[in-house]
Design brief:
This protein has 219 residues and is α/β, with parallel strands linked by helices. Helices cover 27% and strands 26% of the residues. The protein is built from 6 helices and 11 strands. The strands form 3 sheets. It has a 7-stranded mixed β-sheet with strand order 5-4-1-6-10-7-11, sandwiched between helices. Strands 2-3 form a two-stranded antiparallel ribbon. A two-stranded antiparallel sheet has the order 8-9. 33% of the residues are buried. The chain has helices spanning 30-40, 53-61, 80-89, 112-122, 175-179, 205-217, and strands at 4-9, 24-25, 28-29, 46-50, 65-68, 97-100, 127-134, 139-142, 145-148, 163-174, 188-192.
């Protein structure tokens, strides 16, 4: 089995939902769900990277390593890959691969991580991402006209061509990819997740309320 590092990036400064990473969701802060998920799956090498003092303090309280992210790597336009590179560069120990858990996707199927790791190793891929099927009839609008994209008018929903979206539940990638500034490689495996938790990605108050509902009604 490869040597895995779990990274959880949680920057300060959310504009649409201020301080969301430390907002209480059920019995723990939003950030705490991703930490607990890694720990419950047997991972002790978990690192939180953040420029938020409250986040860093909480991480230490629950027994995981906290790395202060420089403010220069924490802006709204800054890609998450630079924060992950910074965190890995602070470590003396080397890891074969990284598991990325985003705090904004706090709810995950219990066995998903173990399944993902098994596939990652069996398929010998350089990265893995979770996806879910989009069953909507999609289209564009041009000159006030709706133009179907993935169907023809009148077509039944169950006959749509399968399309999938990146749900953000988890990512796994070789550390070598991260050194190149990439999270997804040429041998990227799309792991299909058919579970209500895949719908939760928290950016707004409405997203948070939906997460509260799903937390209490699904497992």
């Amino acid at each position: 089995m490869k040597n895995y590092l779990v990274l959880i990036p949680a920057r300060a400064g959310s504009q649409r939902l201020p301080e969301k990473n430390m907002r209480q969701l059920g019995d723990k802060p939003l950030l705490g769900h991703s930490i607990a998920y890694a720990q419950d799956n047997g991972f002790s090498n978990v690192i939180v990277t953040s420029n938020d003092a409250r986040v860093l303090e909480y991480a230490k309280e629950v027994g995981v390593e906290a790395i202060k992210r420089p403010d220069a790597l924490a802006g709204n336009e800054e890609p998450v890959v630079t924060a992950l590179q910074h965190a890995v560069n602070q470590l003396q120990k080397k890891y074969d691969a990284v598991i990325l858990l985003q705090p904004t996707n706090p709810l995950r199927p219990e066995d998903l991580l173990i399944e993902a790791i098994a596939i990652f190793e069996r398929e010998d891929c350089d990265s893995l991402m979770t996806v879910s099927r989009n069953g909507h009839k999609l289209g564009t609008i041009s000159n006030n006209q709706f133009i179907p994209y993935n169907y023809e008018m009148g077509q039944r929903s169950q006959d749509l061509e399968p399309l999938f979206y990146e749900n953000g539940l988890l990512y796994i990638f070789n550390t070598e990819l991260l050194k190149q500034g990439k999270l997804l490689g040429e041998k990227n495996y799309p792991l299909i997740v058919d579970h209500p938790f895949a719908e939760i990605d928290i950016d707004t108050e409405a997203d948070f309320k939906k997460a509260e509902l799903y937390l209490n009604h699904f497992k």
